[in-house]
Amino acid sequence: MVMDKSVKHLFLVAITILMVQCARDQRRHTSVNYPQPLPDSVAMPFLPGIVSGDSLDFNAAFSLDGNRFYFSRSSHSKWMIYMTELREGAWSKPVLAPFTETEYSQADPFVSRDGTLYYISNRPRNIGDTIPDYDIWLVRPQSDGSWSKPENPEGVNSDSTEYYMSRAENGNLYFASNRPGTLGSHDIYVSRYLNGGYTTPENLGPAINSAQMEHDPMISPDEQYLIFTSVDRTDSYGSGDLYYSQRNNDGTWSAAKNMGAKFNTNTYEYCTYLTPDEQYLFYSTDYDVKWISTRHLPWMLP
């Protein structure tokens, strides 16, 4: 069939919009087995006594099927990644995640849409690596239920520390680093996923980063908004607050805004995480992991 160019263009645009909407609908119908009661406008500790306890607990990441929950815990002067599983309607006592290497520190788990689990570790990059920094690593799920050997994604890490990664649906990887060239002590970067590999990380610039410390970025799957922690800004409620920025029509980022008193306290908020169905936002504060409905994100309110 011969189609007028303008009609063909509109047709392709419509198909693209439909595909994006279908992907978004699929995300929102992802099965996650949430414990009761569910939070609404007030953040609640997540799984008290199991995840949120007497120790320093932080991070949040569900498995693709929603039956495992990964988080980090301070243990014997190291960070370790733990997991709890849903068994017969109850969440189990946390155990070390099976890929954990107890001779190193590991934290900041993130499960991507293909099941790959990203995390940080101070394990050496190779036998001759003596630099005491943290790198981003990943493990892949295997058909027998085990995990692959840790992989160091090429092009992302440096001889400085990289940590707290968040992966967009298109594969772009957002993370924090104290590498040379930051505007402050730590900045947020993006490494774009192109042709099966990662590009040289780009600093997100002054709309996000400042002369202070920015870290723990959480990118929405469609890259339309970013939530992160910034330290000691003039409008902070505490020493570390949650801020957000939205994508402008031209692809740039809007100037970061404080998330407000509903999310921030006079202490420190960090480690934000969006659930696979985008219904809840997790973050860490007061040694606990907390969650709140995304209906109360500042840009969602009337």
Produce the secondary structure layout.
Blueprint: H1 5-28, E1 44-45, E2 57-62, E3 68-75, E4 78-87, E5 90-91, E6 95-96, E7 106-111, E8 117-121, E9 135-139, E10 162-167, E11 173-177, E12 187-191, E13 193-194, E14 197-198, E15 202-203, E16 213-219, E17 225-231, E18 240-246, E19 257-258, E20 270-274, E21 280-285, E22 288-293
Antiparallel strand pairs: 1-22, 2-3, 3-4, 4-5, 4-6, 7-8, 8-9, 10-11, 11-12, 12-15, 13-14, 16-17, 17-18, 18-19, 20-21, 21-22
Organism: Chryseolinea serpens
InterPro entries: 6-blade_b-propeller_TolB-like (IPR011042), WD40 (IPR011659)
Protein name: WD40-like Beta Propeller Repeat
User: How far is it from the N-terminal to the C-terminal residue, by CA?
Assistant: 46 Å
Classify the fold: give the CATH topology. Answer: Neuraminidase
Major beta sheet summary: 5 strands, antiparallel
Count of discrete domains? 1
Q: Could you say which overall geometry the principal axes of the C-alpha atoms support?
A: globular
* Helix-strand string: HEEEEEEEEEEEEEEEEEEEEEE
Strand-residue proportion = 35-45%
The share of residues in helices is under 10%
CATH superfamily placement: TolB, C-terminal domain
Number of helices: 1
SS elements, strand count: 22
Determine and state the CATH class. Answer: Mainly Beta
Going by CATH, the architecture would be 6 Propeller
The poorly predicted ranges are 5-29
Global structural class: mainly beta
Organism: Chryseolinea serpens
Pfam families: PD40
InterPro entries: 6-blade_b-propeller_TolB-like, WD40
Protein name: WD40-like Beta Propeller Repeat
